[in-house]
Amino acid sequence: MAKSFSNTSRRQMSSVQVNNAVKAFRNPSRWPEWNTVAQNLLASKPDAMEEGDRLAVFQTIKGSLIETKWVVNSIREGDDFCEIELLGEGQFRNERQIAKGLKNLRVCITFLSADDGGIEVYSSCEVSRLMAVFAKQINRFVKQKTDQFLNDLSKVE
Predict the structure, then answer these.
(1) Which CATH number fits domain 2-152: 3.90.600.10, 3.30.530.20, 3.40.367.20, 3.40.50.2000?
(2) DSSP-assigned letter for residue 156
(3) CA 105 to CA 123: how far, in whole Å?
(4) Minimal CA–CA distance to 20: which of 130, 149, 114, 156?
(5) Spans of all domains in the chain
(6) What is the DSSP letter of 29?
(7) What distance in Å separates the CA atoms of residue 123 and residue 17, rounded to the nearest whole number?
(8) Which three-class secondary structure state does DSSP give residue 86?
(9) Side-chain half-sphere of 122: how many Cα atoms within 13 Å?
(10) Which helix (H) or strand (E) holds 55?
(11) Nearest in space to 152 (alpha carbons), one of 36, 15, 32
(12) Is 19 helix (H, G, I), strand (E, B) or coil?
């Protein structure tokens, strides 16, 4: 049996800011411009994001190159909203998987460009009962992931 952890953050923004943020998010070649974690990014399609695309975000942590893999699970769009769901496929260092304790890492970002709109980021993951002893650290990680996406997307101009 797995234990779930989740966090939701939202920020009210103008429709212009939201539209700029969704354009930057849906263009993988622009990720290093706005994403503080993505020093480099490799994507299935560099200029557009579609369902099924794979993303690999590269960052250096303590001198080691860390690759975080994502797959675009779903994209829902309407006249004044866009919702994109990313599923984590794991983290790798030197092509070896690390952070194996987290399962089903999911980030869902909703962009609402209507009046009183903004951006909402929902992150969740599951861990085994054994890993649940680290609940405080896992909650902090999920909150950091949520806040990082929200803060970075809020600064897109």
Answers:
(1) 3.30.530.20
(2) -
(3) 7
(4) 156
(5) 2-152
(6) G
(7) 22
(8) strand
(9) 6
(10) strand 54-61
(11) 36
(12) helix
Strand partners, 98: 91
Q: Structure tokens of 16?
A: 């212009």
Alpha carbon distance 125, 146 (integer Å)? 12
Distance (Å, whole) CA 50 – CA 71: 10
Q: What kind and span of H or E run contains 15?
A: helix 15-25
Q: What is the pLDDT of residues 11-36, one digit of tens each?
A: 999 999 999 999 999 999 999 999 99
Q: Which two tokens stand for residue 45?
A: 């399609």
* Integer Cα distance of 122 and 73 in angstroms: 14
What are the tens digits of pLDDT across the range 88-143? 999 999 888 887 878 899 999 999 999 889 999 999 999 988 888 888 999 999 99
